[in-house]
């Protein structure tokens, strides 16, 4: 980082031609527009969620409502299970992430040791699963009929306990830890387990943070597995509820409209936006804290080996 | 043992003492040392904690990764939940033949490959181009702000992406159609138009993943020695020449690696996204292998038939990955395996 800053200073000193400056401006503007296009939909939805329905139909686009209103949030909280879904998603995400990290860290550590006997065999076992798998249907049949996981959160957590990709990133991180500290611990008579807990884990905060984010986001965002395995409505996570609130009423299909005619007023536009915000905000709150770690984590994984 | 030490070696002898393998090495300067290699049982006992740590994960791989592979036997059977996986009757390749003979097969193949190839042409180059743009930014704060913003969509669920798409593009009150109507007086129905579905999916992919996709290329570019650029600039190279001769060669290996992975995943269109965006009106172009397997298998209970369809997909996928890896190696690239 320090060296690149130094190079940057040199770069500023180099006098640029007019053509180069024009290209620079174009690049900066294009990048700015691209970044804007990624955040504008979110900003619009946040603004819309605090606006009145009248304003949403009259004004085409706005980022600051004329009249502020929290009615959409009140309606969403009172007339849907969104708070229950939020609670379910938090429970699933926390439990799932802790279990995934426990399994992945303990599995990756022995494999990070060059002397570990059986390492090649185990690694091949893992790599095969990256190339080939049983697929959706045999998994479903075994998990429901043999393991009886239907309608439990275990069906969402257990099948993904170790992502081979994440495990390899962790393993590489362990391999690159300076060996002097571990050696010193061994000289003091520490066991492998003690070295793992007292030396390796405390040094691995960046990789623990970024991989936890990857697993956590996976659980928070999961829709498909919940749809396949969960049957009781009171267990539904936020994504399932969000889809039922938003997509069912705004598809063009006539049957959806009939459904709402029979079941009372359709949720209005602001309510849909409020629900979208409620489901997005938790992820966006964690993101800034972990962002400084995850580029590093992904970079480690990006290097072939 | 490194080559340097190997050159100095004078004598190397392997003996066995008390059942231990002992390698004695004598160096040219006369020093001699012995390396005792302990037996496997002794090793396992000494490192029992490492093996115990490995155990839960190993159990996971057997129960949740390998058992479903074994479960693929039902693709060759007429699986009945009452008889169970093992007692169900064998039918050989009947399920596969049935699958290839349905009129659905060609439609699925066309839709899956159509979406994948469109992704390959439009979505695959997007992060590479964006990385090249970011590489030209020398203002570090601006660069970091842009990076922080463009990574965000990756962390948002497909349900949210789908709901944003609906809220922006739907015909009645979507903002895009409100703008289009204000200008032209007409509306464009993108969400339930079979002709627009592939573009819609690839557009969502580009919006969600382009920013995040730059990380791996920027990581490769971070390894480039900046003096190379300085030296080339002094030699009078302009911006395009620098990009062409320094930047692009630096990310070539990464590009090829990503290409291998993408070609290997040609049949994996991702079911969650497509499942969320398809509806009765665009189903003709929206049904792909993954959504079909879900519908036939889990919704309609045709377990054996859809297992055969899934196995076909997995086998072709594996051949594509290994094949493209082989091709990359034949062209002198390092490949991934």
Please render the helix and strand layout as text:
The complex is a heterodimer of chains A (305) and B (337).
Chain A: H1 2-13, H2 18-49, H3 53-58, H4 71-79, H5 82-112, H6 119-131, H7 136-146, H8 154-157, H9 164-175, H10 179-187, H11 192-203, H12 205-221, H13 224-229, H14 238-250, H15 254-262, H16 269-302
Chain B: H1 3-8, E1 9-17, E2 20-27, E3 32-37, H2 40-46, H3 48-70, E4 77-78, H4 84-87, E5 89-90, H5 94-101, H6 104-123, H7 125-135, H8 140-151, H9 158-169, H10 175-184, H11 197-222, H12 226-234, H13 239-264, H14 271-277, H15 283-286, H16 289-299, H17 303-330
Antiparallel strand pairs in B: 1-2, 2-3, 4-5
Summary?
Chain A contains 16 helices and no strands. Chain A has 305 residues and is mainly alpha-helical.
What would you note in describing this structure?
The complex is a heterodimer of chains A (305) and B (337). By secondary structure, chain A is mainly alpha-helical. Chain A has a domain at 82-235 and 292-303: MetI-like fold, CATH 1.10.3720.10. Chain A has 16 helices and no strands. Chain A starts with a helix and ends with a helix. In chain B, the strands form two sheets. Chain B has a three-stranded antiparallel beta sheet with strand order 1-2-3. In chain B, strands 4-5 form a two-stranded antiparallel ribbon. In chain B, strand 1 and strand 2 (20-27) form a beta hairpin. Chain B is flat and about 95 Å long. Mean pLDDT of chain B is 88; it is low at 1-7. Chains A and B meet through helix 1, helix 2, helix 5, helix 6 and helix 7 of A and helix 2, helix 3, helix 7, helix 8 and helix 9 of B.
């Amino acid at each position: 980082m320090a060296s690149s800053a130094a190079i940057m200073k040199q770069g500023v000193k180099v006098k640029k031609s007019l053509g180069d400056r024009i290209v620079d401006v174009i690049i900066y503007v294009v990048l700015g527009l691209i970044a804007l296009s990624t955040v504008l939909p979110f900003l619009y939805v946040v603004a819309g969620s605090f606006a009145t329905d009248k304003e949403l139909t009259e004004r085409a686009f706005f980022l600051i409502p004329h009249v502020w209103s929290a009615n959409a949030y009140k309606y969403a909280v009172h007339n849907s299970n969104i708070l229950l879904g939020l609670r379910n998603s938090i429970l699933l995400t926390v439990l799932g992430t802790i279990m995934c990290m426990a399994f992945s860290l303990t599995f990756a550590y022995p494999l990070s040791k060059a002397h570990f006997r059986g390492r090649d065999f185990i690694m091949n076992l893992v790599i095969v699963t990256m190339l080939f798998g049983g697929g959706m249907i045999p998994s479903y049949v075994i998990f429901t009929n043999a393991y009886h996981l239907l309608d439990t959160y275990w069906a969402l957590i257990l099948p993904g306990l170790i992502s081979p990709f994440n495990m390899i990133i962790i393993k590489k991180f362990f391999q690159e830890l300076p060996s002097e500290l571990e050696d010193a611990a061994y000289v003091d008579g520490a066991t492998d387990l003690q070295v793992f807990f007292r030396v390796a884990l405390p040094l691995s905060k960046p990789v623990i943070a970024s991989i936890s984010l990857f697993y956590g986001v996976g659980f928070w965002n999961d829709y498909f597995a919940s749809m396949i395995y969960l049957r009781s409505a009171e267990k539904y996570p936020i994504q399932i509820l969000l889809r039922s609130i938003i997509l069912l009423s705004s598809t063009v299909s006539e049957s959806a409209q009939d459904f709402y005619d029979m079941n009372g007023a359709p949720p209005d536009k602001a309510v849909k936006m409020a629900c979208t915000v409620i489901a997005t905000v938790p992820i966006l709150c964690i993101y800034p804290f972990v962002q400084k770690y995850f580029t590093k984590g992904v970079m480690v994984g990006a290097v072939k080996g | 043992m490194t080559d340097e030490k190997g050159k100095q070696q004078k004598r190397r002898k392997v003996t066995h003492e008390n059942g231990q393998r002992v390698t004695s090495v004598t160096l040219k300067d006369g020093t001699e040392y012995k390396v005792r290699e302990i037996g496997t049982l002794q090793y396992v006992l000494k490192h029992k904690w490492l093996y115990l740590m490995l155990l839960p994960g190993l159990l996971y791989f057997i129960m949740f990764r390998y058992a479903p592979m074994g479960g693929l036997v039902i693709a060759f059977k007429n699986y009945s939940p009452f008889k169970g996986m093992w007692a169900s009757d064998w039918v050989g390749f009947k399920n596969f033949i049935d699958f290839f003979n349905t009129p659905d097969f060609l439609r699925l193949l066309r839709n899956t490959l159509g979406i994948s190839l469109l992704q390959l042409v439009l979505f695959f180059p997007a992060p590479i181009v964006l990385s090249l743009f970011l590489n030209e930014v020398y203002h570090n704060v601006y660069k970091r702000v842009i990076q922080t913003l463009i990574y965000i969509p990756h962390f948002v669920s497909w349900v949210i992406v789908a709901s944003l798409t609906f809220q922006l593009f739907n015909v009645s009150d979507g903002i895009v159609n409100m703008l289009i109507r204000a200008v032209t007086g007409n509306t464009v129905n993108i969400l339930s138009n079979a002709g627009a579905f592939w573009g819609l999916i690839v557009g969502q992919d580009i919006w969600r993943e382009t920013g995040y996709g730059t990380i791996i290329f920027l990581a490769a570019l971070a390894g480039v020695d900046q003096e190379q650029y300085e030296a080339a600039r002094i030699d009078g190279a302009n911006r395009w020449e620098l990009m062409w001769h320094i930047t692009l060669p630096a990310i070539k290996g990464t590009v090829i690696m990503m290409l291998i992975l993408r070609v290997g995943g040609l049949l994996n269109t991702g079911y969650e996204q497509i499942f969320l965006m398809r509806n009765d009106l665009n189903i003709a172009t929206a049904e792909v292998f993954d959504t079909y397997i879900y519908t036939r298998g889990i919704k309609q209970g045709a377990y054996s038939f859809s297992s055969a369809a899934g196995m076909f997909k997995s086998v072709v996928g594996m051949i594509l990955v290994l094949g493209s890896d082989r091709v990359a190696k034949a062209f002198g690239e390092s490949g991934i395996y």
